[in-house]
Design a protein that fits this description.
Number of helices of chain B: 7
Shape of chain B: elongated
Helix content of chain B: over 70%
CATH architecture of chain A: 3-Layer(aba) Sandwich
Largest sheet of chain A: 5 strands, parallel
Oligomer: heterodimer
Mean pLDDT of chain B: 80
CATH class of chain A: Alpha Beta
CATH topology of chain A: Rossmann fold
Number of domains of chain B: 2
Strand order of the largest sheet of chain A: 2-1-3-4-5
Strand content of chain B: under 5%
CATH superfamily of chain A: Response regulator
Number of helices of chain A: 5
Number of strands of chain A: 5
Number of strands of chain B: 0
């Protein structure tokens, strides 16, 4: 399974990559923001996108809307992993089509459970 | 927070001009008093001049006090931005070192678990050394803590100066409610970018988020 991890902090990308490695997912690529991720997604097929929200120049929510608005990408599982934890954030992400929502800081068990729930 | 040089020099120039005007009024008052003593002018004119001089003195004092408060806002030798940049760099460096050492330990532990280790003693030492390196890397908290405390101390001093300046200028609390940064306002989801929130600030835990997601 090919996974794209999107976060503007290299440390967080490395943490998620490490956890994914421990879970057993070795085919992992990274992007530093929504715009960079969108370029990658349009070129290569990913089975799962794990994205932060608050990034420049394109946020995770904008990326999610772009993905859901493209017929070729719309079915890609998308997990939002963010420190934005207010009700309005969760509702907005759900309405935009997020598959799951993880609040930072999170545990390896939470990441594993959410991935299992969206990719089976 | 920095004070624009143009603002400081502008205030200094205004204070100087007000003082010059007050001096001129003083001089005119002297002439008026001399004329009064000679019995040439009515006392009403002298009262108006005295009132004008008092207003000028008040204006000069207010501008001098404002100037002193603005000068008090001058940035410290190492700016707050530089100090916080250093904190970001140090925490990032420490996080990378901790991750690097953890991955080193995970690799050695993985070999031991899988029975693929070619030197059990060396791999155990690898795990032990990585753990020690992680402990040492955590020393960043002491350094960054000191830097953050220094920034907080300066921020509190600036906050007090700004409050004094606002009071001095007679600015109401309503007037200080400035709109947010224009750049953020342009983002379609700018109103949703609040950063981490505690439970008291309305932040949800994972289980509450899961309930919302259904």
């Amino acid at each position: 399974m090919k996974i794209l991890v999107v976060d503007d902090y290299p440390t967080m990308r490395r943490i998620v990559r490490n956890l994914l490695d421990q879970i057993g997912y070795k085919d992992v690529e990274e992007a530093g923001n929504g715009a960079e991720a969108l370029e990658k997604i349009k070129v290569a097929r990913y089975d799962l996108v794990i994205s932060d929200w608050n990034m420049e120049p394109m946020t995770g929510l904008e990326l999610l809307k772009e993905v859901r608005g493209d017929a070729n990408l719309a079915r890609t599982p998308f997990i939002m992993v963010t420190a934005e934890s207010k009700t309005e954030n969760v509702v907005a992400a759900k309405q935009a089509g997020a598959s799951q929502y993880i609040v930072k800081p999170f545990t390896a068990e939470t990441l594993k459970a959410k991935i299992a729930s969206v990719v089976g | 927070m920095s004070t624009p040089t143009s603002l400081r020099s502008g205030l200094a120039r205004i204070a100087g001009q007000a003082a010059a005007i007050a001096g001129e009024v003083d001089r005119l008052m002297g002439l008026q008093q001399a004329a009064d003593q000679a019995g040439a002018e009515p006392a009403e004119e002298a009262d108006r001049l005295a009132q004008a001089m008092e207003e000028m003195r008040g204006m000069s004092k207010l501008l001098a006090e404002t100037r002193a408060e603005v000068i008090g806002l001058s940035p410290p030798p190492m700016g707050l931005g530089d100090t916080l940049d250093a904190v970001v760099g140090e925490t990032e460096g420490a996080a990378f070192e901790i991750l690097r050492q953890a991955e080193r330990a995970q690799a050695a532990a993985g070999r031991l678990h899988a029975g693929t280790s070619t030197d059990t003693g060396a791999d155990l030492t690898e795990v032990d050394e990585a753990a020690t390196a992680i402990v040492l890397a955590c020393a960043f908290q002491d350094i960054t803590g000191q830097r953050v405390r220094k920034v907080l101390s300066t921020m509190r001093a600036v906050e007090a100066r700004v409050a004094a300046l606002v009071a001095l200028m007679g600015i109401s609390p309503e007037e200080t409610q400035a709109p947010g940064p224009a750049a953020e306002a342009k983002k379609p989801d700018a109103h949703l970018l609040n950063g981490p929130s505690s439970a008291a600030q309305g932040g949800l835990g994972q289980s509450a988020v899961d309930d919302l997601f259904g």
